[in-house]
Design a protein that fits this description.
Pfam families: Lig_chan, Lig_chan-Glu_bd
Number of strands: 28
Transmembrane segments: 414-436, 475-493, 685-706
GO cellular component, one term: plasma membrane
CATH class of the domain at 107-265: Alpha Beta
Shape: rod-shaped
Domain Ionotropic glutamate receptor C-terminal: 411-691
CATH topology of the domain at 107-265: Rossmann fold
Strand order of the largest sheet: 3-5-8-7-9-10-11-12-13-14
Largest sheet: 10 strands, mixed
Number of helices: 19
Helix content: 25-40%
Strand content: 15-25%
Distance between the termini: 134 Å
Keywords: Cell membrane, Glycoprotein, Ion channel, Ion transport, Ligand-gated ion channel, Membrane, Receptor, Signal, Transmembrane, Transmembrane helix, Transport
Radius of gyration: 44 Å
CATH superfamily of the domain at 107-265: Response regulator
Structural class: alpha/beta
Length: 710
């Protein structure tokens, strides 16, 4: 329970525990500025943890003497933030908190106190404050004045680096951090560790560090991603302080902003300007590599790269003039591309370059994801396009052309035609025999034979003229309708046969993930990125495909394996669209690969950034405008045209990798819009001729054998 004892202007707060308490980080003690109602003040004390140890700190606060002694249970109600006192790590061994001794202002620091009060009241309006002071400043007039400001605040007595872990770094709204340090080494050490314990959007003011130490701070992992760092340095002249700010992308080191003389700043320039809307021509490194259709290289005849183009490249180029920066394209070392996680937890490729701060942006059809913890090293802008992950498979071989003569009609139609032909012979024979008894049937006795009747029926089906016309009107009527029937059949057959001879027919093939899982095909990929995604999929067929995953680095080798029918390749729908739009041949060329109809994942495509990049919020706003304007689709179409143009320019200088790939996945079917009938198209005709030769020879041998027996 709590006990307050009045003692000559001192307020002593004693925490009595009935049993031993576990040792944890001390919670904050909140005291209101108005202590007229002691009961209300104590009831409104809020702690972060239930059990804690608190030792007597060196914080000396002047308060009003209490007029009574009372006891009260620990309250859980939150008090409106007025003053938070966080004790250091070395003071967490006893159960006593003493607050109330008077601070003695240091005369030599009165100028600093006045300057900081003016600074905070000007630049930190409506901001929460974190005041960090070491032993050299904790009892100074500067801290004394700052803690009495009406801002919501936290005060930390810094003894060693671990004390900074108790700072509340995640607070909504405007945040200001004031460091008063005689020894800035703990801050410099903290700035290179625990990257998540930092407010990258906060405003920092550091007092007590030298200019070299401030520059070292801006070069740390946290400092180089913090937009607003201000250093206050005593100039050596009495009462004068110099105010420096970090340059971020504008330059290196610290830049002088203003100075404090005679109780006022010499200029009204803000030390916290917007440093991301105008980068003042800064050179930003953009890491990428050639990956169709996102980033492409326009190559010259000698193989050198003339310039980069493509959807992702144009997005970055559109950002450059808006934010006034210069692009420097770089590639990942050793062909690492997007990067893989190493055994020691580090990353290579794009993720590694962004995580180490060696690149400012990245483009290469980057999917927004957090797979394998890559979001700890790489962040993303807002999405500017979407894509779908599908599976590329070989187009099934066409059906044999010798089957073409039978394809214009279905099996049921052919059976119906056969039945009609079989019935035509007997009907003609019966009508001819019925006419024998009639005088007007003279001369038609030959049709009485069933063989002759079938011969006449075949002539009608093949539209051959009859050797004689029947005299009976019933026979003429029947032959007339049979002729119309045969004409319709022949025209329909001839027209449809032309289509089947000129159009390649292919079987349906694999269209679903289940069918692919049941097949023996392997799963090829240029990296292990999507394999890890498949292993985490709730779809059992995708997890099964991941077990047959094979990494093949060279795209040409992957396409060769697909064409041979040995596996499938994880590919994006946009890549297939690019492929079909950049073929040099006409649309009559048949592409040897296709997409499995059932795809499995949608992804948002974005620009890669280092984690906690100060550019993100500004870039997101403009990228959203680009997406809404429809420019991304336009840049896609332009990249198709440029790719075809570059292919034509290089066509006579030997085959490039893309040309080789195109030669693998396409088959020539003639030039121009007309397709002449080749031997492959008309092979069925020669099969019929060959069959007639063989059948005639067999019949001839049969006749010879029969004649000898006679």
């Amino acid at each position: 329970m709590w006990r307050l004892d009045g003692c000559g202007g001192l307020v002593v707060v004693v925490l009595a525990a009935s049993r031993p308490q576990p040792s944890t980080t001390a919670g904050p003690v909140v005291l209101p500025t108005d202590h007229s109602d002691v009961t209300s003040a104590i009831d409104d004390v809020s702690f972060k943890v239930t059990h804690f140890h608190i030792s007597p700190p060196n914080h000396l606060i002047n308060t009003t003497s209490p007029t009574r002694t009372m006891q009260s249970a620990l309250s859980t109600r939150k008090f409106p933030a007025s003053l938070l006192l966080t004790v250091g790590a070395r003071e967490r061994e006893t159960n006593l908190v003493t607050v109330g001794q008077y601070l003695t202002p240091l005369e030599k620091e009165e100028t600093l106190a006045t300057m900081l009060m003016t600074f905070v009241n000007t630049e930190f309006v409506n901001c929460s404050l974190v005041i960090v002071a070491d032993g050299g400043y904790i009892n100074s007039s500067a801290v004394y004045d700052l803690v009495h400001l009406p801002h919501a605040k936290q005060v930390v007595h810094l003894r060693k680096e671990e004390d900074l872990r108790g700072v509340v770094w995640e607070v909504p709204g405007c945040r200001g951090y004031v460091f008063l340090l005689h020894d800035p080494v703990p801050l410099l050490s903290f700035a290179v560790t625990s990257l998540s314990l930092w407010d990258y959007q906060g405003r920092y003011v550091v007092v007590g560090a030298t200019l070299e130490q401030l520059e070292d701070l801006t070069r740390t992992a946290k400092g180089r991603k913090t937009e607003h760092i201000v250093g206050v340095i005593q100039s050596g002249r009495e009462g004068e302080w110099l105010v420096y700010m970090n340059q971020l992308y504008w330059g290196t080191g610290m830049g002088l902003v203003t100075s404090w003389k005679r109780d006022n700043f010499t200029t009204r320039r803000s030390p916290f300007p917007d440093k991301t809307s105008d980068l003042r021509g800064a050179v930003l490194k953009v890491v990428t590599f050639e990956w169709e259709p996102s980033t492409l290289y326009y190559r010259q005849r000698n193989g050198s790269v003339h310039h980069l183009y493509g959807r992702d490249v144009e997005v970055v180029r559109a950002l450059a003039p808006i934010f006034n920066f210069t692009i420097q394209f770089i590639e990942p070392p050793n062909g690492e591309r997007w990067g893989m996680r190493q055994e020691n937890g580090s990353w290579g490729g794009i993720v590694g370059l962004l995580g180490r701060g060696e690149a400012d942006m990245a483009i290469a059809n980057l999917f927004i994801n957090t797979l394998l913890g890559r979001d700890q090293f790489q962040a993303y802008s807002t999405a500017f396009d979407t894509d779908q992950s599908c599976l590329m498979i070989r187009t099934e071989p066409p059906l044999p052309q010798w089957q073409s003569p039978s394809l214009p009609y279905t099996l049921e139609t052919w059976l119906a035609l056969l039945v009609g032909l079989i019935l035509s012979g007997p009907v003609l024979c019966l009508l001819a025999r019925a006419a024998v008894a009639s005088t007007e049937a003279a001369g038609n006795e030959s049709m009485v034979s069933l063989t002759v009747a079938y011969s006449d029926a075949l002539r009608i089906h093949f539209q051959e003229s009859q050797p004689r016309l029947p005299r009976r009107h019933s026979l003429r009527l029947l032959l007339g309708f049979l002729l119309i029937y045969a004409i319709i059949l022949r025209i329909a057959y001839s027209s449809n046969l032309t289509a089947f001879l000129t159009v390649t027919r292919r079987p349906a093939g694999i269209q679903t993930l289940k069918q692919l899982y049941e097949s023996p095909l392997l799963l090829f990929e240029a990296s292990t990125f999507l394999k890890d995604s498949l292993l985490q999929s709730p779809n059992p067929y995708l997890r099964g495909l991941a077990e047959r995953h094979v990494v093949v680095r060279d795209m040409t080798d992957i396409i060769r394996e697909i064409i041979k029918g040995r596996g499938v390749f994880i590919q994006n729908r946009s890549a297939m669209e690019f492929l079909t739009n950049t073929l040099l041949a006409s649309s009559s060329r048949a592409v040897g690969v296709r997409m499995v109809k059932e795809c499995y994942a949608f992804f948002n495509v974005a620009v890669g950034l280092p984690t906690n990049s100060p550019l993100k919020s500004s870039l997101d706003r403009v990228i959203r405008w680009i997406f809404e304007s429809g420019l991304v689709r336009l840049w896609k179409q332009e990249s198709y045209s440029l790719k075809k143009k570059n292919k034509k320019e290089l066509k006579g200088d030997g085959a490039s990798e893309s040309d080789t790939m195109e030669a693998i996945i396409t088959s020539d079917m003639g030039q121009g819009g007309l397709v002449p009938l080749s031997l492959d198209h008309t092979q069925s005709i020669f099969y019929v001729l060959l069959f007639s030769y063989l059948l005639s020879a067999l019949m001839f041998l049969g006749e010879l054998t029969f004649a000898r027996k006679m």
